Amino acid sequence: MTDWRKRVFLNWVLLGASVVLLVCLVLLGNWQLRRLDWKTELIHAVETRAFGEPVPAPAKSQWPDVSAASHAYMRVSAEGRLLGGKSLFVKALTELGSGFWMMQPLERNNGEILWINRGFVPAAYRTSADRDDGTDRKGVIVTGLLRISEPGGTLLEKNAPEENRWYSRDTRAFSRQAGLGDTAPFFVDADHTRAPGAFPRGGLTVIDFRNNHLQYALTWYAMALLLAGGIGYVIWLSRRPPTPDDD
């Protein structure tokens, strides 16, 4: 096989691989556009739920239907009694610095139990003898945002119940730890209703969804366009008549 024929063969091999890559780039761009539609709808739904009038937190009969798609960040309220002596603390990093989320169960007037994220507390608060844990407090009305349970831990750190170390708000694991039995598969991020500097500090839920999918889609399409130009150049080379120097 002459050098020219070898070059033509190699060009066709590269052309085939490039076409496959081009298709993948276009598909990635299309996928990002679908993600853009999904994220836009999610942001609209969350903003509608989070800033609407509060509705009663789902009752036990509704728990199987609670999902992130339909309930996350919904503004809800619940009335009952905070159970003292059962608070758990989850590692947190907020605009106030590092510390913990204070998780406490609320027994509703109908006997159902759900977990309340009462808010952020600094590390010293966790071991403070005079911390406010709501012991024997009745007639409490909690208003806040419904959040779906976060089982297991985070990507980098796993919950260690046996060591009382928590990195995610896993309501099922909380309930086992506190001996509460069946509780809601969600928790409520409580609003801050106390003095501005008081702890726990509620109302710190971050409602900020990054929406860079259009940028990503344009990047994939731009790469596909550049690759298409390269493929066109290879095709032009393969169709060029051989010269005496090619033999």
From TrEMBL:
PANTHER family: SURFEIT LOCUS PROTEIN, SURFEIT LOCUS PROTEIN 1. InterPro entries: Surf1/Shy1 (IPR002994), Surf1/Surf4 (IPR045214). It is found in: Cell membrane; Membrane. One of its GO terms (cellular component) is plasma membrane. Belongs to the SURF1 family. This is SURF1-like protein. The chain crosses the membrane at residues 12-31, 218-237. It is a multi-pass membrane protein. It holds the Pfam family SURF1. Keywords: Cell membrane, Membrane, Transmembrane, Transmembrane helix. PROSITE patterns: SURF1.
